[in-house]
């Protein structure tokens, strides 16, 4: 979960370190209410990168505006003996200025029984092995876009499956609704994940591993599309199609299922829908004072990872936190995102060498033309963004400014959380090199540096949060931005 203006660093510490004060407050008060008001200013017409990125779609691209937000949230009971508990959340945002909008960014109900959780609605989440407090964004599901409505059953926290606690698992299985995009309306999300932790809870070393699987599927076609002489009006959405989606089954041997009465079950004999995700590994070490977490997310989308052609691509991170510290540097995260390989420039098909498996064109898809985007914003890492968000590039690169035109990116991000007395600080700097994509490369790689300094100060019943952010001229326009937010929780 990334916070720039939406959540104070104190709130982040409550999540990241399981602060007992925050949990006790939830039990006593039952429901926590939060109200916020603030403004966003910038020298350019857009908000800087680290003001608007990973904000769950709440902060618009356009600067020069005001925001008012309200939230009500009930968390689970923290009584140890209580197996059944319920909670809910509702959050609304009104932005006024260059962009005028009203958003219901969270609206969900959840129930828990033992290790299992069921929830329905919009809810802020990230997915993948990553530092959930300071990461620049998990590759596949970063919290950059507005939460998607979902129905989900999960084991949200590692749960032992052996009595001695040596082996623990967590994961989810979900069905979501994309709604209507540029090319398809009323299409769906299938999502699942499974992660395993090896190591007893009291062991200093633990190993993590697992995967997540995302699929865009179904929906009615909004543009003329043909398979042979047959026009496709709908992509399959029946129970049989859902089975192919869940299993990720290849239909190369089942060409008869490609088009039936205008409904397409597969794209030219390929798998049903747009499949993508990451395979993750992590190594954790902690003692009484410190905790280290090394993680790696490897990307799969069109088969290159199976052949190890794009093994260079992925997100690598190292997180360090001082568990008992209350002053000075509290947490540091260094990450390297590499997406420029994509298995090479040559796309495999049946008439070429299948092992090539290149030009994966991350987050783009020939069927769901919007790509891995929800409500105009990238669902995954914010470094891969639609054309209209790359304000420093020519908007003539494509007639559709919602398309992703720069998905070959190498980026380093350093994030530091610290505290001086009662003042919380978040410092972040990212440096990236951007190559466009194989079909429309940028001339020689475009550099981009973005910096953020956030200061959070509590005063009586209020918290005052100021963020200063800067982008140099590159993929983004040169821009200096300032945001100011006041929050009260009661």
UniProtKB/TrEMBL annotation:
Keywords: Signal. It holds the Pfam family Caps_assemb_Wzi. InterPro entries: Caps_assemb_Wzi, Wzi_sf. This is Capsule assembly protein Wzi. Residues 1-24 form the signal peptide.
